[in-house]
Amino acid sequence: MGRYVIRRLLQFIPTVLGTMFLLHYITSLAIQFSGNPVRALFGDRTPPPALLEAITERLGYGDPCLDQRGNPCFGLFLDRLQNIFFHFDFGINLRQRDVTDLVADALPFTLKLLVIAIVFEAVVGIAAGVLAGLRGGSFTDYLVKISTVFVISVPIFVLGVVVREFVGVKFGNVLRGQEWIPDVISVGVFAPVFKQEYPLASLIIPGMVLGAVSLATTARLTRTSIMENIRADYVRTARAKGLTNKRVIGVHTLRNSLIPVITFLGVDIGAAMAGAVVTETIFNVPGIGRLVTFSARTGESSVVVGVVTMLVLVVLLANLLVDILYAVLDPRIRYE
Amino acid sequence: MTDVNVKMDALAGVDPNALPLQVKNLQVEFRTRNGIAHAVNGVSFDLRAGETRAILGESGCGKSVTAQAIMGILDSPPGFVTGGEILYRGVDLLKLPESERRKVRANRIAMIFQDALSALNPVFTVGFQLAELFRKHRGMSRQDSKARAIELLDLVKIPAAKQRVNDYPHQFSGGMRQRVMIAMALALDPEVLIADEPTTALDVTVQAQIMALLAELQQERNMGLVLITHDMGVVADVADRISVMYAGRVIEEAGVDEIYASPAHPYTKGLLESIPRLDLKGQELSAIKGLPPALTNIPPGCAFNPRCRYAQEVCRKDPAPTLFQVSPSRTAACHFWKEVKGDE
Fold it and tell me: A253-281: b or e for each residue (b if 16 or more CB lie within 10 Å)?
C-alpha cells in the first residue's frame, strides 16, 4: 500500500508539469494575440509609454517572447517553475496582490460550495437510487428515472440561470414579502446571488445546482447497482440467516452496491470543480471559479496558472484518496 | 454454554413430538412475462430427526425452488407459494408473519448453498459473517460472538481458525469456503439443514470430504438433512430416503436401497441407467432422450410422457398419475409401475 501511494505521488509530477505548461502556453498565446494585459489597468486613458513599460516590466509581462505569436516562452515557463517550486511564489496579479493571497481569500467559498454539492448529491442521490432500485418498476422507480433524465439533459448553465431566476428572484421575492419568515431563509437561502452577510446560507442553492447533474448520475448508478446486487447469492444467504430486511439491505447489499458509486463520486470531485467555475459565475460567489474566470478574461496569466495548478493538485489528491477508499470498501482489491 | 437460547423466542404451537419438517402438497409458481411457470406442483415429503432425505432431479425440476420456499427466501415477485403447507414441528410456516418466520431461519431450519464463493458476501470477513448470527439472534457481544465464530471454524476443521477468522471469502479455497458455509448454517444448532447441491462446485476429493463432514455433524446433532442434488453417487452414499422430482412433482419416493434395486418410475430408471458403469466399458452410454418440459408449458397427463418408452394413451391425458403405493414404504407416480419394476 505504501509503495503504491508513493508511486501514485510520483505520477503526479508529469501530470502537474504538463498541465502547468499547457496553461502557460495558452495564457501566453492569449497575450501574444490580444496584446499587453497591463493596458487594461488604465481603462480608456492612454498611459505614458515609460510608465506602461515600467509597470509591464514589474508585473513580469516584459519578456520579448510575449510579442512573438506562437512562441511557447520556455524561458518564462522555467522562471515560473523556479519561483513556484523553490520560493513558493505564485506571482502577483495586475493589482500586485499575491496569487496565494487571492486563493486563500477565494478557496473557503469554493470548498463550502463543493462540500454542499457533494453531500447533497451523495445523500439524496444514493437515497433515491436505493428507493428506486429496491422496487424496480414501481412509482418511485419511474419518478427517479424520469426526473434524473430531465436533470441530466439540462446543461448546468441553463439550470443555474433558471434556478436563480425562479427560485432566487421570483420565489425569493414572495418569501421576502412575508414578515414571519426569518431573514436567514428569505434573504439568505433564497438570495438570487451570493450574499456576504449569509456566507453559508446563500451557498446552499448554488451548491445544490452544482450537485444536481451528478446527483442524477449517482441516483441512476446506485439504482442499477442495487438491482444487480439484490438478486446476488450472498443477499439470499443473508436472508436465509434470518436477518432483518433492514440489515440485509443496509449492510449486505448496500456495501457492495456502493463500490461503483464511490468511484463515480471521486471522479466527480474534479468535474464539480469545473462546474464550480460556471456556478460561481452565475451566482456571483467570490470563489476560485470566479477568480479564474475573471483572471482569464483580463489575461492575468500568473493567476490562471497558479490557481489551476492548485486545482489540479486537489483533483489528483482526491482521486488518490478515492482509490485508497476503494480498497477499504472492497477487500478483494489490493495495491502493491 | 449458558448463552444458548437466551434470546431465542419460543414459537407458539410447537409440538416437540411432531416431525421437524413436513411438506404437504407444496405449490410454487413464477409469474413471468411469458406466462406462469409452475415450478413446484404439489410436492410432499416428511423428514425425521437424524434422517437424510435426498431430493433428486435434473436442473430446472423445482428442487431448489422447493428449498427456497421452505426457507421463505423465494424472490417474490416473481415467485409465489400458491398452496400447501410447510410444517415445522406441527407449525405451518406459511401462516406465520414474516417477523416470526425470520426467527425460524438459521435457528431451526438452516440452508447451505451451492456456490460458496458467491453465497458468501465478498466484502465482509468470514468471522463477521459468522459472528453476525450470534449478535443478531442471540444478542451476544462482538467479542463473545467472535470467539464462537472461531469455535465454529474449528468445528468444520478449518486449520488455524484463530487467524483465518479475519480473512475474506476470496482468501479461502473452494472446499474451505463450503466449510465456512456449513459452519454458518450450523451456528445456531438448527434441527433441519437444507443443503442445495453442496458439492456441485467442488472437485471430487473435496466433495467426499465435505459430505463426510456433513454426515458427521448431522449424526452428532441428530439433525434432519434435506440433500438436494442431481448426483446419484452422492445420494447412494449418504441418503436414507429419496424423493425423485420431475417437472415440479415428486414422481417417486422410496428408501435408498429399494430405489437403487428396483426403480418403479421410468424416469428414475432412466437416471440409474445413465450412470456410467465400468463393466459396460466401450458401449454407448444410455441416456434419457429429449429435454424436460418448459415449466410454462407442462404437457397434459404425465409430464414425462413425451420421453417415456412405457407411455400409453392414458399417460397423455389429464389427470396426471397420482402416487401409487408400490410397497408399504414407497410410492411412484406411474400407471405402469408394475411393469417398470418387474421389467428388471
Answer: bbbbbbbebbbbbbebbbebbebbbbbbb
